[in-house]
Amino acid sequence: MPPRILVANNALDHGRITCDAFLDVIFQSSTPPSVVLPTGNTPLPFYAELRARLRTRQAKIDFQFLQLDEYMGCAPHSETLFSKWIAREVLDPLHIADRFTFNSAADPSEEVARIRAHMASLPSIDLVVLGIGQNGHIGLLEPGTDFNCAASLVEMAESTWAANCAYWGQDIPRSAVTLGFQELRKAQHTFMLALGTSKAEALYRAFYGDVTPDCPASYLQSMDNVTIIADRDALSLFPV
Ligand code: PGA
Predict the structure, then answer these.
(1) Architecture of the 4-231 domain
(2) Where are the domains of the chain?
């Protein structure tokens, strides 16, 4: 099944379109759906829109949050943690109580085992929302990762690490835990979010290149119910 493509005119529009698509999935479900949400700059307009909608609507938005990735080796209350970022942007403002988050301060192999066991206990995930790295990564699954891998301890690629240091204006750990393809393939729906020309080549390789571990996002070609939500710059290499 080819991906659905939703085209945004700008970042604000991207936030609105992503929010509409997100709420469609949330409200389809009679029980709170399970949702993986990413950090990064790309989803910020979406999260802002979600907060704005919540202020104006009566219906409660509820879901079970599942973390996508996290730095390892940070102090539990470090503000640079992805779990804190997502809490500030979405989970606290929306009063989402059900959160499966990763423990950056835990022993890495025990934490990976805990994450694998929890994710293996879920028959499926209702929605996985992903960004894409300029090198084609999803989550922190970097180029070269085996498509059969489960949640793992990983080393960030140099470019990913540099981009992450830029978020915070300081050095962050180089190692991280991330969900693997074994978990991501449980998604009933997957959203791929991209904004800007810097993502155009990665997005093109993901959906028009070979399905290869060299471009982890190309794995999405083998999945059903994938929605690309991107602006015209990010889609500029797609055939018209
Ligand atoms: P960005 O990061 O949204 O900040 O561009 C996305 C990613 O690297 O996965």
Answers:
(1) 3-Layer(aba) Sandwich (3.40)
(2) 4-231
> Which of ligand 1's atoms lies nearest the C-alpha of 137?
9
For 99-147, the pLDDT digits (tens) are 999 999 999 999 999 999 999 999 999 999 999 999 999 999 999 999 9
- Residue in this structure with the two tokens 């493509």, named with its chain if needed: 5
Distance 133 CA to ligand 1 centre (A): 5
Q: Is 40 in the pocket of ligand 1 (CB under 6 A)?
A: yes
CA distances from 159 to 24, 134, 142, 165, 176 (A): 35, 8, 10, 10, 14
User: 49, 69, 111, 183: which one is catalytic?
Assistant: 69
| Single-letter amino acid, residue 43 | P
The residue whose CB lies within 8 Å of the most ligand 1 atoms, and thus the one to mutate among 68, 82, 132, is 132
Contact 221, 212 (CB under 8 A): no
pTM of the model: 0.97
Instruction: Give residue-wise pLDDT tens across range 169-210.
Output: 988 999 999 999 999 999 999 999 999 999 999 999 999 999
The residue contributing the CA closest to ligand 1 atom 7 is: 133
